[in-house]
Amino acid sequence: MSSIYAAKPWLSQLSEAQRAPIDPHPTVVHSFRAAVARAPEHTALAYFDGRLSYRETDELSDAVAGHLAARGVSRGDRVAIMLQNTPHFVIALLGAWKAGATVVPLNPMYKSGEVAHVLADAEVTALICSDRAWEAYLRDCAAASPVRIALTACELDLQTRGDERVLGFERSAPAADADDLLAVARRGLPAPTGREPAAGDVALISYTSGTSGTPKGAMNLHGGITYNAERQRTGHPVPEGACYFVLAPLFHITGMVCQLAVCLANAGTLALAYRFDAGVVLDAFLEHRPAYTVGPSTAFMALAAHPAATREHFSSFAVISSGGAPVPPALVEKFRAGFGPYIRNGYGLTECTAPCASVPPEKEAPVDPASGTLSVGIPGPDTIVRIVDEDGQDVPFGEQGEIAIRGPHVVPGYWRLPEATAQAFPDGELRTGDIGFMDADGWLYVVDRKKDMINASGFKVWPREVEDVLYTHPAVREAAVVGIPDSYRGESVKAFVSLRPGALVDPAEISTYCAERLAAYKYPREVEVLPELPKTTSGKILRRELRSPA
After folding, report:
1. pLDDT confidence of 23, banded at 50, 70, 90?
2. Distance between the two ends of the chain, CA-based, in angstroms?
3. Which fold has domain 32-197?
4. pTM for the complete prediction?
5. CATH assignment of 453-547, among 3.40.50.1100, 2.10.50.10, 3.30.300.30, 3.60.150.10
6. pLDDT at residue 22 greater than cutoff 70
7. ∠ CA 410-380-437 to the nearest 5 degrees?
8. Residue 427 gets which letter from DSSP?
């Protein structure tokens, strides 16, 4: 039977609430305004010891919208935001959307060349960034771009505690050639009327990480964001008003949808801590007592490895989800044994506005007995996931192929790239480039990226399978596997690992460990130990960098 017919078993796995058609608010702005109406004095944003209510956040973002409109930002203009996980990001985002603009989220780790590409490609009108980044290099980037409006933020503001582990920098002098975001927000200008976006408008131009070439801007629609946010809210329910801890960066689609948009729809408190530091995050868990968080597996590895981590740090959570990077089955079990919560796996991409499959709250993800791969969940309502061959034809249950996705959350394409759009979205269906399979009960499994497959002596080796074995070794904290040239085999397997605190192990021992558990062509002939593996800010390990001889 073709894997497309797994739609019926999917429904048998879902609760009544999850099966019901999703009728989201048209935009995050609408759901935010609804939260303001029913809980105006409830804390919307918590930032170390700082607090902003829904009413205050609404007023501040209204004023940012009024300022942008007064400075000439028109409906559909692009406003870039380059900030860490702070209240400034949320205020700027809501303000831009209330002004009718499309937001271009920028990774604060971007260098000048990467920023210059995005500012030019998206034809950005306004840039909102930290004052330090403006002084360091963004002023020069903006001068050579279409940007004509700049607002800067001091990320020390809106709190007083100043945790030096993540906020260990000095306050900059106000820039003479940029407006101060917080000063603008406090002027109280009214938001422009008739500007709020509709479901079919482009909310974000989200530039992909560029792991396979020049970054492309996926056009995430307002309706796609609220569809997936509502799906997450009903699929992973927590009480209204609960605290959501921001573990994934807000500029990334996972943080944007599965944390910010879900929280605002639920009139919750969004707890922010600037950027990820395991010790800071653990302290914040005790302070804010969050009910929900989502982050990459690498973040949970770092939290579990921290010497101060205890079960009490995680005792408030009703739901912990993982997205953005594969979750090894060994991590799920070690985490549950050590700290209590079960990490609920999920799968999505920027091009499908974050999740398209997740593990229902009353279920646990099965592990495929043949490959040891942990399922990423069950596709949600109105989402069709197919496993297809090279010709786009459905393959049988259990057979590997490319994952293809169709649904209301799939983006219409890439910004001003019709050829790339036609290739990636034939007839509106997203071809993900991920290899996976589906079982007869509708559980989806992701094997690996199509381009990362290793050809060793004519045999296919998927790095993910080898990495899952590496994660079962008691000394291994992080693992990544790549193919390296081999004069005899064509390619052979090389593993890069970082170790758990205090662990000492001979790389040859790790190779032998894998050889005892994998076929002869799969185990890593070489193992290299590194202090840390290179990652994107969203937590994905960068195999591309590990392949480089440098």
Report:
1. low
2. 47
3. Rossmann fold (3.40.50)
4. 0.87
5. 3.30.300.30
6. no
7. 85
8. G
